[in-house]
Every structure is written in C-alpha cells, then in structure tokens.
Design goal:
about 425 residues, mainly alpha, 2 domains, 18 helices, globular
Length: about 425
C-alpha cells in the first residue's frame, strides 16, 4: 500500500511539473529535509525567545539583543562569503573545499578578534564593563564558531539535505539547553553571552569534526574558491553591518526596551523568510551547474509561482499574529502591529532567486550594484526616518529598501546578456 501511494505521489509531482516548470521530485525530496531542519531551528529559536521575553526584564533582553547584533558585525570581519564559495565548489566536485575553506577562514579571522577587542576597550574606558566583557567574549569565540559552521555548506553543496537536517538537530541541542539553563539561573548579560558563544563553538566544532571524519574529506588547496570567497566577502561585509543597523540605531535613538519589542516583532517574520530562503539551498547547486541562457528562460515563471505562495503565507500570518503574540509574548502587545507590517518583507523573497543566479554565475557587477546601492539606501532611510517616526521609521526603511531591491534585481536580470551591465 505504501509503495502504491509512493508511485501515485511521484506521478502527481511529475504531472505538476508541466505547470511549475520545476523538478518537483528533487524539490520535494530535498525540501522535506531542509524544512525539517528549519523547523528544528525555528523551534529552538522560539523556545529561547519565549524564555528571554518572559524571564528577563525588557531592558536586559534589549541589551542582549544589542550585543548579538554587534556580534554579527564583529563576525563580518572575515571571509563571510566562504560558505557560499564552498557550496559552489563542492557542487562542482571539489571534495577538499571544506578543509581548505576553514584554513583560509581562520587565517582571515584575526580582524574579528581585533574589532571585538577594540569595542571592549572602548566600553571599558567608558565604564561599561557589561558591554566591554561581552564584546571581548564575542571577538574571542567568533572565529571558531564561524569557521566550524562551514560544515553545513559542504552538506548543502553535496545535496545531502537529510544529513544536514539530522546533524543540525544535534548541532542545536547543546546551545539551546545551555542558554535555557543560563536564562533560568541568572539575569547577568555577560554570563548569557558567554554561555551562548561557548556552547555554539563547541557544538559547531564537534559537527565539523564529524563531517570531516564521516566523509573522509581530503585537505587540498582550492585557490579559485578562496579567491571567489574574497569577492563575496567584500560584497557582504558592508551588507552584514547594514543588516544590523536598524537594531543598532533603535538602541542608540530609543533605548533597550524598544529594541526588545522591535526584535520580537522581527522574530517570526525572520523565521518565515528563512523558510523561503531554503529554496536557495535547493536551487544554488543547480544554478551553479546550469548555463545562464537556460536559467534566464525558465526562472521568471518560477518566481511568479513562488510569489503566489508568499502572498498566501503573509495573509495567514497577519491573521494569526495577534494570537501568536498574546499567547507567547503577553508583555509585548506593541510588537503585534509592527510584526504584521514587517511580514510584507516576505513578499521580497522570490526576488532572491535572481540574486542566486548572479552569485552562481559569478556575475560580479550585478552583485556589486544591488548590494552597494541597496545598503546605502537602507542606511540613509534609517538615519532619516528613525528620529522622525521612532520604531516605525525602521519598519518604513526596511520596506522601502526591499521594494527598491525587487525592482533593481529584476531589471539587472532582464538585461543581463543584452547590455554591458
């Protein structure tokens, strides 16, 4: 009976390909494990968010969020594009990409230590030992947590989605349990930050060692991969900083408590956007081995189908958001409307497929145009709108930036191959 159902399902998926113009069997097999892995990630993030929101004062939670945002900026001072470069190289047959990538990543990670130490020194000199100690911890642990985390890029490049999901479960377990215990036992921000970074570094290191041993990965050089990762990193360092600018500026202009409410409003929207980002894990290995002319022919139809799905998801989320927040975050009613409006950002996810094509085919000029122009626009909008409209200024800035990105990315994809852009 199960075999019969399987055959019928395969027939149904093959039939649907006439309308979706997509390998639905590949999408279903890989998508299932990617979605499962992300469900694990969502569940762990949600559990921690509920604990933080209900066990910590708003000011403490907001301070922790500020430190985590600054930690992301610290981690940007390395080869942030190495993960994508490894995925691309592995998809094209380079088995030694992971170990070569880690080696290069660690060589370029000294800047993270320096930036973390510089921030720590600044806050120590200004008498803020909480932020000083926290940034010292972030700078010390970030190189190892970031480097060992590259093992997931290898699994995605090999299209080992099942292994990525199952190993990801073990990867998340230790940090979640450790941070939960810390939140229950203390409200000291420095302790929470230390537990977070230490547990994540240990779990990422164990996963890296397991992947290298299980798949017997060679230690070979790959200069082309390292070179491309430097290009991607040059693009992303500015993006990584600007991506955290809204939280940093909310902290600067409004304080810790508004940042806590704003961060919670973003949480479910970010997780939903990450679910749709899983399509990148499925499509990027395919795009890396497919010629651009073929991709350009079929991709716009896929994007339209993708957009229809996102519209349905956004409508459902807007309807369910009040129940979600009143149940899990009763102390933050101000986050409900913020989150409903922020959910419109999900509509921009289909556009990311065009960006994946630019990356897969090393279309550097298109990547620089979209990245630099959108990040400058976002920063300008944040600086102008936040003082005028408070937290809502950050929301308007994000919406405006993503609208611009949709337009410019689609235009560059349309004219690629026709003009020298």
């Amino acid at each position: 009976m199960l075999e019969s159902l399987k055959i019928q399902l395969v027939k149904l998926l093959r039939w649907s390909e006439r309308y979706t113009k997509t390998d639905m069997l590949y999408l279903t097999k890989g998508g299932f494990w990617l979605v499962l892995g992300h469900i694990i990630q969502i569940a762990s993030g949600l559990v921690l968010a509920v604990a933080f929101a209900n066990l910590l004062p708003k000011e403490t939670f907001g301070t922790y969020q500020f430190i985590m945002s600054m930690a992301v900026i610290i981690s940007a001072f390395t080869l942030t594009g190495m993960g994508t470069a490894i995925t691309r190289a592995v998809a094209q047959g380079s088995e030694g990409a992971l170990r070569a990538g880690l080696r290069a990543q660690m060589r370029w990670s000294s800047a993270m230590v320096f930036v973390g130490a510089a921030l720590a020194a600044y806050y120590y000199l200004n008498g803020n030992t909480v932020l000083g100690s926290s940034f010292l911890i972030a700078g010390a642990f970030s190189p190892f947590a970031t480097g060992f985390g590259l093992s997931k890029s290898y699994l995605i490049g090999k299209q080992l989605f099942r292994e990525s999901a199952l190993l990801g479960l073990s990867r998340k377990l230790l940090p979640v349990l450790a941070v939960l215990a810390a939140v229950y036992l203390t409200q000291d921000v420095v302790t929470l930050v230390l537990v977070y970074f230490l547990s994540n570094t240990l779990s990422a290191g164990m996963l890296y060692a397991l992947v290298v041993r299980r798949y017997r990965l060679p230690d070979t050089k790959d200069q082309d991969m390292v070179s491309y990762s430097k290009h991607l990193s040059a693009l992303r360092i500015f993006s990584e900083i600007i991506n955290q600018a809204d939280k940093i500026l909310v902290w600067v202009f409004l304080g810790a408590a508004p940042l806590a409410a704003y961060s919670l409003a973003q949480l479910p929207v970010t997780q939903l956007r990450q679910v749709f980002k899983l399509s990148s894990s499925l499509t990027f290995p395919k795009f890396s081995t497919m010629d651009f002319a073929t991709t350009k022919k079929f991709l716009p139809h896929k994007v339209r189908v993708f957009l229809l799905v996102t519209v349905v998801v956004v409508v459902i989320y807007i309807l369910l958001a009040p129940l979600f927040f009143t149940t899990l975050f009763p102390a933050y009613p101000e986050s409900i409307l913020l989150s409903q409006v922020l959910s419109l950002l999900i509509l921009s996810k289909p556009r990311s497929l065009y960006g994946q094509v630019f990356t897969a085919h090393k279309m550097k000029r298109q990547q620089y145009i979209t990245s630099i122009s959108s990040n400058i626009l976002k920063l300008v909008l944040l600086i102008v709108l936040l003082p005028l409209y408070g937290v809502w200024g950050a929301v308007y800035a994000l919406l405006g930036t993503h609208l611009y990105l949709n337009i410019i990315t689609r235009y560059l994809f349309a004219v690629a191959g026709k003009k020298n852009i």
